[in-house]
């Protein structure tokens, strides 16, 4: 019995090591867009850089709501509703005190009405009522960015959860006066859920399930729009001793995330994306609710693949994992793998 338990444990460790290596080395797990199928994955590096030190300005931000058939997994497509054709929507960066003009255009080919509710807004419905647009219409409003922080935005057209589950969410960063401390790399990562009539792993074009949505039983969990989207060519990349900042949010619409990077400890956590208080330090896993966000910072001292997960780990088998690939010199003083004495004994 003891021998069997040890063998099973060894097999599990081998499987984990193999899976992380595979994700780092190849993009076969990343959904491949075929002809006529959109790539809805938002790259984790697709975000504007830090703002120059400046006073408050008038900033105009335009969104196009587009409904597209996109690659959800290999051989599997889904009809997404999006901001600007990607999931999540574009990362918006403004400064505390800015006057922000939001313009939303609903594509002529849309079937649904769409709008946008930004959690950074102080005003009725977060701008949702002001931007309610039928297909082909444009709506706009302005707001003053009063409070620094990292905020979720989403479509708030009834049924609100349906619009969010189909991909209509993103984040807006309101930098504090003077900005954030400089880091070497910044990444944009959002978690979401997709509810399909068909079981997870079904090939072909899947259809949405309102019943599963109401029961909060998703078939897929995703980072940045699709199953295993942030692996292979889309993996996050860094070098040892670089400071890394991840802007992390949960579009949801229903599930809370326990965000964790396997093999790392967060040096700083701006809990619930509050940027004006002292950050938490030396944190293993953070809790982020649907419609919430957090900012984490860390430095990867040892090279290799690091797996991004929600530590509700069953979700990894439904598409919720990513890779941070770190390059650089080995650090045996920090991490050293002992020789396999079993293999050596057989040689």
UniProtKB/TrEMBL annotation:
<feature type="binding site" description="type 1 copper site">
    <location>
        <position position="114"/>
    </location>
    <ligand>
        <name>Cu cation</name>
    </ligand>
</feature>
<dbReference type="InterPro" id="IPR001287">
    <property type="entry name" value="NO2-reductase_Cu"/>
</dbReference>
<keyword id="KW-0677">Repeat</keyword>
<protein>
    <recommendedName>
        <fullName>Copper-containing nitrite reductase</fullName>
        <ecNumber>1.7.2.1</ecNumber>
    </recommendedName>
</protein>
<keyword id="KW-0186">Copper</keyword>
<keyword id="KW-0560">Oxidoreductase</keyword>
<feature type="signal peptide">
    <location>
        <begin position="1"/>
        <end position="24"/>
    </location>
</feature>
<feature type="binding site" description="type 1 copper site">
    <location>
        <position position="163"/>
    </location>
    <ligand>
        <name>Cu cation</name>
    </ligand>
</feature>
<feature type="binding site" description="type 1 copper site">
    <location>
        <position position="155"/>
    </location>
    <ligand>
        <name>Cu cation</name>
    </ligand>
</feature>
<feature type="domain" description="Plastocyanin-like">
    <location>
        <begin position="224"/>
        <end position="326"/>
    </location>
</feature>
<feature type="domain" description="Plastocyanin-like">
    <location>
        <begin position="72"/>
        <end position="177"/>
    </location>
</feature>
<dbReference type="InterPro" id="IPR011707">
    <property type="entry name" value="Cu-oxidase-like_N"/>
</dbReference>
<dbReference type="InterPro" id="IPR008972">
    <property type="entry name" value="Cupredoxin"/>
</dbReference>
<feature type="binding site" description="type 1 copper site">
    <location>
        <position position="168"/>
    </location>
    <ligand>
        <name>Cu cation</name>
    </ligand>
</feature>
<keyword id="KW-0732">Signal</keyword>
<feature type="binding site" description="type 1 copper site">
    <location>
        <position position="311"/>
    </location>
    <ligand>
        <name>Cu cation</name>
    </ligand>
</feature>
<comment type="subunit">
    <text>Homotrimer.</text>
</comment>
<dbReference type="InterPro" id="IPR045087">
    <property type="entry name" value="Cu-oxidase_fam"/>
</dbReference>
<dbReference type="Pfam" id="PF07732">
    <property type="entry name" value="Cu-oxidase_3"/>
</dbReference>
<keyword id="KW-0479">Metal-binding</keyword>
<dbReference type="Pfam" id="PF07731">
    <property type="entry name" value="Cu-oxidase_2"/>
</dbReference>
<dbReference type="GO" id="GO:0050421">
    <property type="term" value="F:nitrite reductase (NO-forming) activity"/>
</dbReference>
<feature type="binding site" description="type 1 copper site">
    <location>
        <position position="154"/>
    </location>
    <ligand>
        <name>Cu cation</name>
    </ligand>
</feature>
<feature type="binding site" description="type 1 copper site">
    <location>
        <position position="119"/>
    </location>
    <ligand>
        <name>Cu cation</name>
    </ligand>
</feature>
<comment type="similarity">
    <text>Belongs to the multicopper oxidase family.</text>
</comment>
<dbReference type="InterPro" id="IPR011706">
    <property type="entry name" value="Cu-oxidase_C"/>
</dbReference>
<dbReference type="GO" id="GO:0005507">
    <property type="term" value="F:copper ion binding"/>
</dbReference>
């Amino acid at each position: 019995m003891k021998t069997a338990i040890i063998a099973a444990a060894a097999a599990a460790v081998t499987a984990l090591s193999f899976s992380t290596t595979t994700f780092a080395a190849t993009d076969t797990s990343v959904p491949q867009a075929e002809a006529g199928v959109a790539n809805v994955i938002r790259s984790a590096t697709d975000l504007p850089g830090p703002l120059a030190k400046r006073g408050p300005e008038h900033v105009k931000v335009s969104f196009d709501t587009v409904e597209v058939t996109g690659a959800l997994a290999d051989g599997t497509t889904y009809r997404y509703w999006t901001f600007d054709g990607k999931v999540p929507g574009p990362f918006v960066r403004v400064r505390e005190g800015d006057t922000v003009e939001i313009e939303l255009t609903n594509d002529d080919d849309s079937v649904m009405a769409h709008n946008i509710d930004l959690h950074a807004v102080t005003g009725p419905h977060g701008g949702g009522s002001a931007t309610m647009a039928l297909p082909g219409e444009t709506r706009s409003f302005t707001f003053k960015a009063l409070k620094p922080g990292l905020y979720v935005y989403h479509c708030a057209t009834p049924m609100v959860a349906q619009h969010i589950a189909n991909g209509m969410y993103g984040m807006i960063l309101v930098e504090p006066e003077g900005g954030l401390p400089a880091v070497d790399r910044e990444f944009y990562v959002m978690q979401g859920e997709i509810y399909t009539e068909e079981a997870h792993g079904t090939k072909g074009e899947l259809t949405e399930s309102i019943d599963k949505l109401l029961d909060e039983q998703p078939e897929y969990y995703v980072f940045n729009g699709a199953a295993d989207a942030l692996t292979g060519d889309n993996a996050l990349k860094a070098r040892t001793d670089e400071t890394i900042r991840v802007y992390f949010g949960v579009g949801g619409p229903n599930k809370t995330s326990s965000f964790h990077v396997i093999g790392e400890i967060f040096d700083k956590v701006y809990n619930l994306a509050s940027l004006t208080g002292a950050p938490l330090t030396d944190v293993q896993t953070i809790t982020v609710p649907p419609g919430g966000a957090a900012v984490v910072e860390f430095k990867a001292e040892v090279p290799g693949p690091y797996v991004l997960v929600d530590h509700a780990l069953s979700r990894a088998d439904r598409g919720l994992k990513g890779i941070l690939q770190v390059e650089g010199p080995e650090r045996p003083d920090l991490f050293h793998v002992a020789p396999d004495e079993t293999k050596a004994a057989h040689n």
